[in-house]
Amino acid sequence: MKYLFLTIVILFNLNAIGQNKDWANLSKYSSENKSLMPLSMKEKRIVFMGNSITEGWKNTDPGFFEGRLYIDRGISGQTTPQMLIRFRPDVIDLKPAIVIILAGINDIAENTGPMTLEETAGNIFSMAQLAKAANIKVIISSVLPANTFPWRPEIKPAEKVIELNILLKQYCEENRITYLEYYSHMVDDKKGLDPRYGDDGVHPNLAGYKVMEGLVENAIKSALEKNGK
């Protein structure tokens, strides 16, 4: 019986190791990244880095990405440490003019374990610093409002979202980075995602993405105009 138990434990651990071999999911966009055509001097590629909110964008409103040099690099469920690991292949190596970072809600949900807001913000700041070192303009998005997680109902995220957004906005102001304010346009009177703009309290629906699209296009214009670029 003891040996059976040990065998089960070993098999469980090996299975867990196998599942976590590509913890940051570097393979998800590997083929697509390699297939992207080189840019001309006049073309300006825009990369959207994020989690399920970003990944769901191209699925919910694919027309927003069609005919534009907009590259969606969202991965469902991801936290900022995972995004930081894949930031080079999924952003820097694509040589975009701008990266739009929308991240943090899954850190608050503790998808990869407990994290402080300062740790989350620090990972976003690190992505911004890597981009700037590669001459990529940065847009940091506010975290969308949420006051509940369907998959983690014991966590109450509303106040943490507000606090994280304060840290992000302050960093943008201090470092001349474009701050993309989604939160105030999508919040309801309970500090959650307005039901008009999302069905599960976290992820936007088509109407929500339409609100975001107008805001992001203004932010892209602003970012390109900074420092004459």
Characterize this entry briefly.
With 229 residues, the chain is α/β, with parallel strands linked by helices.
Brief descriptors of the model:
10 helices; alpha/beta; five-stranded parallel β-sheet; Rossmann fold; 10% strand; 229 residues; single chain
**Biggest sheet features:** 5 strands, parallel
What Rg, in angstroms, do the CA atoms define? 19 Å
Mean pLDDT: 91
Q: Uncertain runs with pLDDT below 50, 5 residues or more?
A: 1-18
* Sheet/helix structural class: alpha/beta
| Assigned CATH superfamily | SGNH hydrolase
What is the terminal separation in angstroms?
A: 69 Å
- The SSE string, one letter per element, is HHEHEHHEHHEHEHH
Could you say what the CATH topology is called?
Rossmann fold
Instruction: Record the strand order, biggest sheet.
Output: 2-1-3-4-5
Q: What would you call the shape?
A: globular
Number of helices, counting only DSSP H or I runs of 4 residues or more: 10
Question: Please, could you describe this protein's structure?
Answer:
The chain is of the alpha/beta class. The protein has one domain (41-228): 3-Layer(aba) Sandwich (Rossmann fold), CATH 3.40.50.1110. The protein contains ten helices and five strands. A five-stranded parallel β-sheet has the order 2-1-3-4-5, with helices on both faces. The protein is globular. Residues 1-18 have low confidence and may be disordered.
